[in-house]
Amino acid sequence: MRLFLILFALVAALFALSLTIGPARTGPLDSLAALFVGGDGPLPMVMREIRLPRALLAALVGGGLGMAGAALQGYLRNPLAEPGLIGVSGSAALGAVLALQAGLTATASLGLPLAALLGAVIGVFLVIGLAGARGGSLTLILAGIAISALASALTSLVLNLSPNPFAANDIVFWMMGSLADRSMTHFWLALPFVAVGGILLASTARGLDALTLGEDAAETLGLSLTRLRLLVVLGTAAIVGGATAVAGAIGFVGLVVPHILRPFVGAQPSRLLWASALGGAALLLIADISVRVILPDRDLKLGVVTALIGAPLFLHLIFKTRRELP
Amino acid sequence: MARRAAACISVSVRPSKLISLLAALVLSSAAAWADAPRRVVSLNLCTDQLAMLLAAPGQLKSVSYISRDKRASAMTAEAAHFPINHGGAEEIYLLNPDLVLAGTYSSRATVNMLRRLGIPVHIMAPALTLDAIPERISEIGRVLGRDATAAKIRAQFESDLAELRKIDGPRPRAAIYNANGWTPGENSLPGQILKTAGFTNVATQAGFAYGGEMPLELLIMAQPDLIVSAPAYDGHSRAEDILDHPALRALTGTATGESVADNTWICGTPHVLDAVRRLAKARRALLAKAD
């Protein structure tokens, strides 16, 4: 319980800090007052339409990705599983890009996250199908690399074929993710998908706990592995689809957060789910604050920061897992 | 030594030859035409358009493919009559040009390769002010040996511009806001066009002298009277999403959606005057509404 309070306080503080950072140099108190009370002039508009959606999206997307990482790791019983690394985010981005470029959807319609969701579902099924539900580390990572590479190549191809001269520059956005200049429309678009995905994953909590005893023991406890698998796949896909459709593919959040928090929850998957949701929100808020503090004039991508934190950890985990490999 | 020898020769020519030589000098355009390039190829959108305006029939052999893109080029109809090139050295060499026109930002590798192959390349700097446009017209006229045509177009441009500059009254605050939040400042052709049309540029006030990516927050805080954007391209790009942002559409008291297509102000050609006229009209509408 104490851990949850600490994490919640951290997210709340980072959320408030995120709201006070922006190129228009306004006092933090004035800014927050304008957000809640409104008032004359352009400041309430800036707070409500530009900074608020950015902070909300950072918390939502980060929280979703953290939880999805924890669920995947629990289900595959593999600390290397993460939506970005195993190609789910990349497949979701491909779905979103296809929908946008084919003109199936305007920027802010439901078709966009639905297409990303579909991409994510295909991505998860391919990876889990290729690696097998028992999730050998090596096959999982290899399958993930293959799916990621294919999805990113196809995304680049689609964007290069676009008649829009700016589309090719969007490749970086779809691969690295950014929350710059997103609006409340994007938040409302992503929210139902991430929320439904979160509920699906939350319902797997007991199953994931049982799975720590091994598949056979879990089944004797009355756990349906097929059902659990379906819930994890759909939950992850809904979260990653909704998040990627509006923020691009942001990697490593689902890897770093469960890894850091696992010792604090006694390695219990059900508790790790919720802790990772809060931790993911905090991590992405930190990342989004740092991109604005480090390079205020440029749109530094979120994936750059999360990869700088996550990649060394990933190497460390590979090194650790190597001992278990034949 | 050489010069003195030449003088001796010219004195020793027969009077009839001397007369024809003088006649040729008087008809300076004809003399220029005598050694003017006959097979000109242009690699750059801006030299394309000036060359199409100025070249003699049959003199211009190819223009760049961009000049047929109606988003970027103000002269797509004219460009349809010329074969297009994509600016590769091999492709250009095979056209056997005796003059290549390129821009400052044309590929260095291509330009150097063509020069090594013995083809003269004329590089034109982009026009960053309206006053540089007459100079560019004369410059291309000179290298094409079409000084007379250039002088005529130049005079027309200068008198039209002088007419458009007769503006008085208040100067509303405007911003040109494009994909990625790109905003041209005072020292750019679009910035100069905005100024000539009677506006104060918000970007200059925000510290973007040459232009840059102005954060949406700063634009909202500046509360301009008018926002000018180019119409969105086909397909989709996140870069253009910013022009659809609710905060931009909700700017109170601001006229948004005034669109001036890129093709009128990418290049310093007489077509920039269309952009000036269009913005001047928007300004009159704005002032009439304020009254």
Describe the 3D structure.
The complex is a heterodimer of chains A (326) and B (291). Chain A has helices at 2-19, 28-37, 43-76, 88-101, 111-131, 137-161, 170-176, 184-202, 205-211, 215-220, 225-247, 253-261, 269-294, 302-322. Chain A is mainly α. Chain A has one domain: ABC transporter involved in vitamin B12 uptake, BtuC. Chain B has 291 residues and is an alpha/beta fold. Chain B has two domains: 40-162, Nitrogenase molybdenum iron protein domain (Rossmann fold), CATH 3.40.50.1980; 173-290, 3-Layer(aba) Sandwich (Rossmann fold), CATH 3.40.50. Helices cover 46% and strands 14% of the residues of chain B. Chain B contains 15 helices and eleven strands. In chain B, the strands form three sheets. A five-stranded parallel beta sheet of chain B has the order 3-2-1-4-5, with helices on both faces. A four-stranded parallel beta sheet of chain B has the order 8-6-10-11. Chain B has a two-stranded antiparallel ribbon with strand order 7-9. In chain B, strand 1, helix 4 and strand 2 (60-64) form a beta-alpha-beta unit. The N and C termini of chain B lie far apart (76 Å). The chains are: A mainly alpha (326), B alpha/beta (291). Chain A binds chain B through residues 22-24, 42-43, 45-46, 49-51, 100-101, 103, 107-108, 162-167, 169-170, 173, 181, 183-185, 297-299, and chain B through 71, 179-181, 212-213, 215-218, 220-221, 223, 233-242, 244-247, 250-251.
